[in-house]
Amino acid sequence: MQSGLSWYVYTLKRLLLMKKTTLLINCPDQKGLIATVTNFILEKEGNTIYVEQHVDHALKEFFMRLECEFDSDEKKLARFKESFNTNVAAHHQMHWEMYDTDKKPKMAIFVSKYEHCLYDILGRYASGELHVKIPIIISNHADLKPIADAFNVPFKHIPVTKGNKVEAEREQISVLEEHKIDFIVLARYMQILSSDFVDRYPNKIINIHHSFLPAFPGAKPYHSAYERGVKIIGATSHYVTSDLDEGPIIEQEIVRVSHIHNVQDFILKGRDLEKIVLSRAIKHHIQHKVLVYNNKTVIFS
Amino acid sequence: MQSGLSWYVYTLKRLLLMKKTTLLINCPDQKGLIATVTNFILEKEGNTIYVEQHVDHALKEFFMRLECEFDSDEKKLARFKESFNTNVAAHHQMHWEMYDTDKKPKMAIFVSKYEHCLYDILGRYASGELHVKIPIIISNHADLKPIADAFNVPFKHIPVTKGNKVEAEREQISVLEEHKIDFIVLARYMQILSSDFVDRYPNKIINIHHSFLPAFPGAKPYHSAYERGVKIIGATSHYVTSDLDEGPIIEQEIVRVSHIHNVQDFILKGRDLEKIVLSRAIKHHIQHKVLVYNNKTVIFS
Amino acid sequence: MQSGLSWYVYTLKRLLLMKKTTLLINCPDQKGLIATVTNFILEKEGNTIYVEQHVDHALKEFFMRLECEFDSDEKKLARFKESFNTNVAAHHQMHWEMYDTDKKPKMAIFVSKYEHCLYDILGRYASGELHVKIPIIISNHADLKPIADAFNVPFKHIPVTKGNKVEAEREQISVLEEHKIDFIVLARYMQILSSDFVDRYPNKIINIHHSFLPAFPGAKPYHSAYERGVKIIGATSHYVTSDLDEGPIIEQEIVRVSHIHNVQDFILKGRDLEKIVLSRAIKHHIQHKVLVYNNKTVIFS
Amino acid sequence: MQSGLSWYVYTLKRLLLMKKTTLLINCPDQKGLIATVTNFILEKEGNTIYVEQHVDHALKEFFMRLECEFDSDEKKLARFKESFNTNVAAHHQMHWEMYDTDKKPKMAIFVSKYEHCLYDILGRYASGELHVKIPIIISNHADLKPIADAFNVPFKHIPVTKGNKVEAEREQISVLEEHKIDFIVLARYMQILSSDFVDRYPNKIINIHHSFLPAFPGAKPYHSAYERGVKIIGATSHYVTSDLDEGPIIEQEIVRVSHIHNVQDFILKGRDLEKIVLSRAIKHHIQHKVLVYNNKTVIFS
Fold this sequence. Notes:
The structure is a homotetramer. Chain A is of the alpha/beta class. Helices cover about 35% and strands about 30% of the residues of chain A. Chains in contact: A-B, A-D, B-C, C-D.
């Protein structure tokens, strides 16, 4: 039996000195991948705490997420990455990313006039529920500045008109780069981003929108859904690609409605859904649980 | 206090001698409707056991469903209906229907080649779960005859081709009339019914189909949904109108899917959903809990 | 057809001038009860907006909840009540209560040291979600006073010791009477109320506690449930009777747990449950949807 | 890139020639366990297809479930087990079990007079849903023999009286051994098994019983729960230990009830729950997803 004391020393070291990382890998499916990767980590003074895998048998693609601890400083970790790339990833045609688990990613929020998603995100942020930094909120309207102020988050008003779209996006990008933003959340931002903008942040822009069965494409979808008498309304969160509203889906949820609900009830229930679905998508992203492949997502548990 | 004996006599009479009816009413909203109707029933030797109401404030329309018992024979009940029509309904611009609660409606099932919904309905029918008679199953293919035989339900094969559609529908109608069919369930019947056919059975034809967020209009919707990486798939049951798949929705339900499910899993989960949603819609219809107004449904509880 | 104008006048009158009331009735089951009551209301210039009923066939007891509108002032309403009592209730052995729907009942909160339920109730109160007034929070400890202050709700510290229990309850009652309290919520109040106290507020004291399958009677139930490896934890809200924790159950809910949750997770999930269940019970009570009979509740929808 | 052909050869080999095994391990938590085990498997011509882990930080215990494929025959696999025991398990104080994934375990069913669970299990068995063999049903009554006959499963009637309990269990054990039974399901078997019997089948006897919040210990728990007016009823499946109804819980589930349900509804809902919970527990067991430690279960996903 391991002695109690040595276990405590081990635990203490894990908590204080060790570097926690999350590793996301995908590559063509083949034999020995789990052993190869976990063993390489062990050889390099690392320890795999948790592994999850998925194989897409139709695409013959292997996906893995590892939580690891390294008895290392930054320099050693950089050497690990280099070595992993040369000695493991290259041999197996791996696409891989490695994240410092303890480091909070920097998230920008884009808003327009609807406040419900912004309130929800900032409330969770203030309570410590979201492991992120929010250096900046960007909006094409000034309306929501007081909310940003109340939560002490900087707010940048960049008006967008038909004529100034290119300049506006240039200014947005400059603000994002200045704050070293890792990813963007469109919290009911009512402008369409250009392909140029979107291509700078592949799988780094999270959007939320309502979704219905059947779909109602017009301007007032909640009114159409109400007129149609649907029994279910939904919301979808996805990464933004240049193909509008067609990016990889991260999360969806629905809520039942009935004849007793009027169109205003539909809208309120829809807003509650949007908050829930968007915040779940943000959490998946922050925890590096999303792996995008072939315009779809693998969501690790 | 009411004596125990008199209560038992009352209960026995209710169970054996009384005529149970279900009354569905809608009319412009106005004062005193509940009292007016329940009081009229009481005056005519009836008793209201259960009432439910709904007011659509946007349309200013009142909806009510009553379960009543009448100390009456058929003749008296016919007089009640006449009197109700003259003395109550006419004064309040009511649309109303009255059903004999104990009488099993006659339901025809239309099928093609998919058997899952047919199996589900016949299983529930055999176990006594559905308060209906099923005098006939009609199909454009002979494939599912053995299932009908196993459940001792007559099966009529009426082939439908491009050329014989009108004749085929004429034959279907003749079979339906011969069996005095009250309503029709399309249990994955893969032919489109003509407007002429549909108009003969307003709010009497129940259909089931898959439904997705977003919608996938093509030929293989489950494949499209899988390609798209949706996290939710759904099914919708509705009354058939001449506007294809746009009739009043009776019931919808969804099930979550994830990256671990392949397209075959999607299809299997979709079939299970279709069974559940269709059987719920059938039950609502049989129990006279559905009131159609303005191409939408009020579903009483 | 009713003209649009007359409908608007009617709606305006309903909103501005009419007295909205909720009527709860139970009595031995018998014929004509719905008609009798709704008709009497109509005769007295009232209108029944919504009715719900339930019959307990084992106990032969009838239960009804009505939402009514009266074209009346307070004086007329008082006459209605008197007349209803003499002409309807007495004839049918009715137990009945009538509430002014628009009047906010006065609710006192009792707390000790746990703050989660208090925070939840005051948050809902501040957002307007609860149709109540909260004139006073009473506690046997001073710890939660800052929360009361933050929400601008008066806080009364009444210490309870082994020796002063009778005096403490006398002081509590005096405070409750001074504020004309209608009902009391024990938001994790850790003292047992005496029978004398409880008997003053029959079905007017709402309590919340954890509940498990199986039950764990000891001092640290969450620890016991964790040790036992349960897969579900629950919470129960009930009216307090002199039979401790055995009063009529208003609401229960559960949440799934698994081996990945430690005892701290159990406690946190249990607290979230307690908040949800207690707030649902409070809402049912405020909306006069709870009818207690035979130590059980009928909860109207 | 891996060529398409080589991938198909690999897949074909996996499906046809490879030995699939499931490995369950628990041991004191320490560094490198995942790598050590998966690497050892790889060295021995095995491949780890899927791994799941759990660490109980309070008990400092590590749990792992692996699905592996071996390019081996029975003889080679036996050598692997020996080598794993000597070279891995012994060094880490591992408790481990290895199962042939494709081999159907042999399950005996014990029943008395209630048929609902038996019907449910045999229905799932007949449809191929359960990866087991059922060589024998044992009952202390003859009542359910026709059901066993209908599903072509042998049925052994072993009466149990106050006086013959020891002999009856001896006969039961003899039947179980004759059929090389791997585990036992008590599908509402109404006799208490002796400690002697239970100790022969540690974590191999699965039981089902109702469970309530609060608990109702008497003879008619559904009646008690109904009298108490509970809003939730539950069921629990667990391994049988000599401490009656106190063995490790495998699965629990609940269903909501309300005042509209009578005691018969409670019982019917309870039976449906028992079926669902028991069948889930059986599936977890069959798939080797349950690891018992410290009288609790880890249920892998």
